[in-house]
Amino acid sequence: MLSRFDFPEGFVFGAATAAYQIEGSGFGGCGPCHWDTFAATPGNVVRAEDGSRACDHYHRWGNDLDLLRAANMDGYRFSTSWARVMPDGVTVNPEGMAFYDRLVDGMLERGLKPFQTLYHWEMPSALADKGGWTNRDTCHRFADFAGKITEVLGDRVASIATINEPWCVAWLSHFLGVHAPGLRDIRAASRAMHHILLAHGLAVERLRGMGQDNLGIVLNFDYCQPATDSAGDRRAAGVQDAIFNRWFIEGITKGTYPAEALEGLAPHMPENWQDDMAVIGQKLDWLGVNYYTRHIHADAPGTAWPATRDVAGPLDKTQMGWEIFPDGLHHFLTRMARDYVGDLPIFVTENGMANADVINGAEVTDQVRTDFLFAHLAATKRAIADGANVQGFFYWSLLDNYEWAEGYEKRFGLVHVDFDSLARVPKSSYHALARALARND
Ligand code: GBH
């Protein structure tokens, strides 16, 4: 079994969460966000569940930080809700700001490095109503939010990520319609694909000007496998790889977008988008990689661009129906280093699995999650041996939580949460990780 001593000195082990998925948006003067309205519309979310109470982390944060500490973790990846800090998208809510101030101090008191994410999907409704990420002005409002919160937290956080998973924010939410705002519109999607990176760039520019040297972005990657060796299936996997895995990193590091994706998106992009590429392409201090699974793509001739369809894969699947494929993590870590970022520090900012865990007295035995986690740690170790400068790994997630369109049914946590009593019970995977992370002293 791997332990922390199999990784380079200073490697950061941690767990990740996101504000809307755990805090409970019904407390502390938090403003409404587009997930509240999206969830309230029947058909969007399982049982129309929302994040208004979630894990009640807003009141139980001290206990939750204790759980990270007791598992011998070095860091905690959390997000700071825009709607909590700025309920109308513009004006600061002091109570919301004070919450994150306490939370960050609480991490430092426990020896946990704070890894902050600025946008993990709670767009204030006031801004969503003006078009959200389809509206260029939102990018400037986001930079203002980044500046305001960094005035308060910037001296204490180890790291700041601008955006969590631009693909989900743009494509999943505006083209596939699965996440808020639930659009299926190529024009809205094309604009969001660009504006989300412009927001990132404007925020980096603002924070760099304030002296921050710990700035990054968190991208999500799905391994794209052609269903067969045919030219059509290889084209299908290639175009999905361009949309999913190349668009954002190439926008940032190469100053342009992949031709295979522009083929479908260029006609709908904001005018003169090329003029924004310098802001988007500013130097980063680190890159975050989120990785869960792979997809098998087949050609779908005669259907609308991108003219692909997904094919079921043969590997073991998680509760989400996602194939378990640890080699994909090795693939993306080494590919990022080789093709895009060289020696820049890379963090695995999310990796994890949902499982239909059953609680038995005070025990939850989730051996499959332990196996999943250690297989992905092993893939990370191999990527380091192959030259990728990986400096940390965060399991998704510390707690069972609000799994967006899947509501509360899908359990990703190292810690079980009873969504009636809100009791926390560490699972056997939590104990296995705690043992692996024990220090000698
Ligand atoms: C992350 O996104 C999020 O950052 C986090 O908030 C969330 O709770 C967590 O993952 C678990 O879902 O076509 O259905 O097979 C995950 C990004 C993109 C990974 C889609 C899996 C396969 C989608 N995901 N991908 S599907």
Automatic annotation (TrEMBL):
PROSITE patterns: GLYCOSYL_HYDROL_F1_1, GLYCOSYL_HYDROL_F1_2. This is Beta-glucosidase. The active site is at E165, E350. GO terms for biological process: cellulose catabolic process. The keyword Nucleotide-binding does not apply. GO terms for cellular component: cytosol. Its EC number is 3.2.1.21. Belongs to the glycosyl hydrolase 1 family. One of its GO terms (molecular function) is beta-glucosidase activity. Substrate binds at Q21, H120, N164, Y292, W396, E403, W404. Keywords: Carbohydrate metabolism, Cellulose degradation, Glycosidase, Hydrolase, Polysaccharide degradation. The keyword Hydrolase applies. Transmembrane segments: none annotated. It catalyses: Hydrolysis of terminal, non-reducing beta-D-glucosyl residues with release of beta-D-glucose. It comes from the Bacteria. It holds the Pfam family Glyco_hydro_1. It is an enzyme of class 3 (hydrolase).
